Amino acid sequence: MEMTLDKGKLPQATNLQVLVADDTASNRSMLDVFLRKLGFTAIMAADGKEAVARFQSDRPDLVLMDVMMPVMDGFEATRSIRRLQEGNWVPVVMLSALADDSDIAAGLDAGADDYLVKPISFAVFAAKMRSVSRQLMMQRAVVESLEQIRAISDAVIDGLITINEHGIMHSCNRAACAQFGYGPAELIGKNVSMLMPEPHHSAHDGYIRRYLETGSGGGVGKIRQVTGRRKNGALFPLELGITDIDLPDRHLFVGVVRDVTERERQARERAETRARLERLYAEQEREQELARTIMERQIHGDWLKDPRVQYSVSATTRFSGDLIMLARSPGGRTFAMLADATGHGLAAAISVLPVLSLFYTEVAREVSLSYLVSAINAQLRGGLPVGRFVGAAIFCLSADAREVELWVGGVPEVLLLDRGGGIARRFASDHVPLGITDNDEDTGRTERFAVEPGQQILAYSDGLIEAHRSDGEEFGQECLEQTLAVSAPERRVEAVRQALETHLEGEAHHDDVSMLLLTCVPGSKASEPALEA
């Protein structure tokens, strides 16, 4: 072998191992020197069989293969090495004195990447090694990039499947395999229609042809929900998005698939829950409407049409825990009651429900106010759970409208108004609310006071003076009394109600609001309804 030494070294060739197979020791020694000068590490083999064995054990980066060797020639050794590559390209360069075209063709057909004829100058050898090294580095860079892409693809949560224009799958990531229940080897090279149920299984190739012919259809560029078929035949909902990559010589379609079985299950559960809640809400609405109707029927509304009475009840919900009652006894006395149960809504309304029939029944029996209070307290004490009670203002106007008997417990002070709306007297709450304690000597204690014709008695719940805007400013006692002082006697309750709305500036009140005002004049027999016991 004739070689002349060159000072140049190969770029990017350091740390590469080169397997040298040559039966001549001097050639092996010379190649070892030249390779070390070029930055390579040499691995020596004296024949083709040893070369194959060293290839298996040392896994070199390049191979320099002599053709004419004992035991196994270079052609057979090259073919064996190609079978052992396992997908990793290892350049094989044959070095031989055989220079015929048939010899060169035989070497290339055996799997060699290049063929150098002996004797070889070092300049040609060095150039050839640079060229082969560049090719090897480029190939390894491509492989590394593909491995990175494959790793990224496998890390993606959604399934990724690529197919060609014939529907044949080129790649599939780990998520796609898991969704359909196949291994990669079972999918790659197969038609993607195997992942679809009929009629799409048979029609899918036609979808692709129409898209390639017309440029539309096939679901390309859209995300839609379709049905997939797993390896075990089970069908499942999946979300599919298809992108067309138009390469210079072919089309490559990338499908992104997402198993939406769990999302569909959750959607069904939400729909079922929503329907169940709607049914429950409708049933609750019907029940509450029935309860409201029953309660309204128990209130003797005709009594509240008495021209001497002004009242207002505003509930925060459909039901009010505040209740206004009015009735006239057979002897002509007028009984009025404002009740305010703890809380609001249906629970509060139920708390005052037992008071209704008892109030009208006892008034019809011409009982005293003291007895009425004790009867109501006993009823609530025995019927309400712990923590539930009813604040109340109960008063009785004599038949000649000259005297009032009053009981106040658990509600704001009752006001006696003069004709001009000023405060003639205040009557603070001096009893605990009804339903808290058992009856004793103090339970039915009342206060009597004389009144002048035209004076008015006002009772109201704490929801009135405690009503506040979002900034925390309450309607308050002062605003109430100012409104009473400037309003006409016959519309004082309405004036207070409007003043409250103005103060709240359109905001909702947070508690039931009720007012009851009775003008101290004798009642008219003509307007008196029949009172049933």
- Outline the low-pLDDT stretches: 1-13
Total beta-strand segments:
20
> Which percent bin holds the helix content?
25-40%
Total domain units: 3
CATH topology of the largest domain: Phosphatase 2c, domain 1
**Total count of helical runs of at least 4 residues:** 14
Strand order of the largest sheet: 2-1-3-4-5
Principal-axis shape equals rod-shaped
* Rg value: 51 Å
Q: Which band does the percent of strand residues land in?
A: 15-25%
CATH architecture of the largest domain: 4-Layer Sandwich
CATH level 1 name of the largest domain: Alpha Beta
Q: Can you tell me the CATH superfamily of the largest domain?
A: PPM-type phosphatase domain
Mean pLDDT: 85
* Straight-line N-to-C gap: 135 Å
- The helix/strand class is alpha+beta
Descriptive overview:
With 533 residues, this protein is an alpha+beta fold. The protein has three domains: 16-151, 3-Layer(aba) Sandwich (Rossmann fold); 157-259, PAS domain (Beta-Lactamase, 2-Layer Sandwich); 299-527, Phosphatase 2c, domain 1, CATH 3.60.40.10. The chain has 14 helices and 20 strands. It has helices at residues 25-37, 48-58, 74-84, 101-109, 122-155, 174-180, 184-187, 200-214, 261-298, 346-364, 369-383, 462-465, 476-486, 492-504; strands at 16-21, 40-45, 62-66, 92-96, 114-117, 159-164, 169-172, 223-229, 235-246, 251-259, 309-314, 322-328, 334-341, 390-397, 403-409, 414-417, 423-427, 447-450, 456-460, 513-519. The strands form four sheets. The chain has a five-stranded parallel beta sheet with strand order 2-1-3-4-5, sandwiched between helices. A five-stranded antiparallel beta sheet has the order 7-6-10-9-8. Strands 11-20-19-16-17 form a five-stranded antiparallel beta sheet. Helix 10 packs antiparallel against helix 11 (369-383) and helix 13 packs across helix 14 (492-504). The chain is rod-shaped and about 145 Å long. Mean pLDDT is 85; it is low at 1-13.
